[in-house]
Design a protein that fits this description.
The chain has 458 residues and is of the alpha+beta class. The chain has helices at residues 3-12, 15-22, 32-40, 44-63, 114-181, 187-222, 246-256, 258-278, 334-401, 406-440, 449-453, and strands at residues 70-82, 96-112, 284-297, 299-300, 303-304, 313-326.
């Protein structure tokens, strides 16, 4: 096939077919959900948050320990030598070795310890903190993998449009050369077409490199090489957003956003820390139960065992039960200063919560308005694409009849393919904007990827 005929054939092919040829061999392509599942088991940030969540679960169980009985087993054995000064010993010195052995079991059950109770309640709030942090990490991973996924698709579309434009410019260059040879156009048309062709070749090289860079970024998130993301179906109808629903999104953010939930948990922990500090003025009451046994062989430090004990062993067993109360009176103003510290930290946590609520509300508004703007841009670019195509057709016709010059056709071609690139990117931005809006108000979940997955080619 001659180059000119081949060029004409490629120009007549639909753009969708050209893009399919450019990215053929997608039988092993992965969907957005597939890549998210792979990234979930590979991403270091998410795995770190998951490990922190498990650690906080174990820490919450530790808080129960201070409310439960404490049991201890003790044992000891000592060997001693008793020596008396001969000058002070009457009537005769008495020097000998003796051995003591003791063992016991002691149990302490807290009855009233307000500081321990506050510590336990803090540990339970730690679970809320860990859950909020894990949810935040999961939402962040959802957006990051979606951003990388659509970045690759955007780069691939840009490359396909540049390659299609290259085919069209090559055809226009060949037409200009033919017209110059027969004397119906000047050398200027040929040179302009050649310059535009060289420019498109440079753009193709840059677009191809951008595809490689974006693919590497996606592979780094997923932990797998040779990824082929599924493409968006042609003529996809993008979901709309309710223009009156901004207030509902903000209300949801106040109830569900992980940053707000985390700040609320931090405030509750700070309040409980104040309770612990105030417990420094309160009494503590414990119930104690013990059983201890002590054996003395040969004698003690005060004297030898009586000769009436035939075995040479004296054993004492003591069982005890009681209630121990303790009331602190003065600790050098440590308790008062600790209370002042915790109250200040409580105010800080309260202000942090207020700041988090304001930031989340602002982020929700920004994401909502950005999504509305993106939908508007898609509609405008769809109209611009149709207008650019009509302008290109008109310029081609005008060039054929001699009322337009080659540069008019080249500019129309450039405008058309630039509009197509902008439209493709705007579509991806809308899909990503929907996820970012849900992230902004804290309701983003892995199930939200399914609606986007349904718009991808199977």
């Amino acid at each position: 096939m001659q180059p000119q005929r081949a060029s004409s054939l490629f120009q007549r092919l639909p753009l969708a077919m050209l893009m399919s040829l450019a990215f053929a061999g997608t039988s092993q392509a992965q969907s957005l959900v597939d890549m998210y599942e792979m990234a979930k088991g590979y991403d270091a940030g998410y795995q770190a948050a998951k490990a922190q969540y498990l650690a906080n679960q174990a820490k919450a169980d530790q808080g129960k320990a201070q409310l439960l009985p404490q049991v201890g087993l003790s044992a000891s054995a000592t060997r001693s030598e008793r020596t008396q000064d001969p000058q002070t010993t009457t009537p005769t010195p008495s020097n000998y070795f003796f051995t003591n052995q003791s063992a016991g079991v002691n149990i302490t059950q807290p009855l009233y310890r307000p500081a321990n109770l506050a510590t336990y309640r803090q540990s339970q709030k730690g679970l809320d903190q860990a859950q909020a942090a894990l949810s935040q990490a999961e939402q962040d991973l959802l957006v990051r993998i979606s951003q990388a996924y659509f970045d690759v698709l955007t780069a691939q579309d840009s490359l396909a449009f540049v390659q299609a434009q290259k085919v069209a410019v090559a055809e226009q260059l060949a037409s200009a050369k033919r017209n110059f040879e027969v004397g119906t156009s000047t050398i200027t048309d040929t040179r302009e077409a050649q310059a535009r062709y060289d420019l498109v070749v440079a753009q193709e090289i840059a677009a191809d490199n951008d595809v490689r860079v974006k693919s590497v970024a996606l592979e780094l998130l997923v932990g797998k090489d040779g990824l082929k993301p599924l493409r968006l179906q042609s003529n996809t109808n993008l979901p709309s957003v309710d223009a009156e629903a901004l207030s509902n999104w903000i209300v949801q953010s106040e109830q569900n956003h992980p940053a707000i939930l985390l700040a609320r948990a931090n405030l509750e922990v700070a309040k409980l820390e104040t309770e612990k500090a105030e417990a420094g003025h309160k009494p503590t009451v414990d119930f104690t139960l013990g059983y201890n046994s002590s054996k003395n062989f040969t004698g003690t430090a005060t004297g030898a065992l009586p000769s009436t004990i035939s075995t040479g062993i004296a054993q004492v067993n003591i069982a005890s039960a009681g209630v121990t109360a303790n009331l602190p009176l003065f600790a050098g103003f440590a308790t008062q200063n600790r209370i002042r510290e915790t109250l200040a930290l409580e105010d800080k946590a309260r202000n942090d919560l207020e700041g988090a609520q304001r930031q989340v509300a602002q982020a929700t508004r920004t994401a909502y308005l950005g999504l509305q703007s993106g939908l508007g841009q898609v509609k405008a670019l769809e109209a611009a694409e149709a207008s650019s195509q009509a302008a290109l057709d008109a310029n081609k016709l005008g060039y054929q009849v001699g009322v337009k010059v080659n540069i008019d056709v080249l500019n129309s071609q450039s405008q058309l393919y630039q509009t197509k690139r902008d439209l493709a990117k705007a579509r991806y931005d809308v899909l990503l904007g929907q996820l970012k809006l849900r992230q902004a108000n804290g309701t983003l979940k892995a199930e939200d990827l399914q609606s986007i997955n349904a718009l991808l080619q199977k």
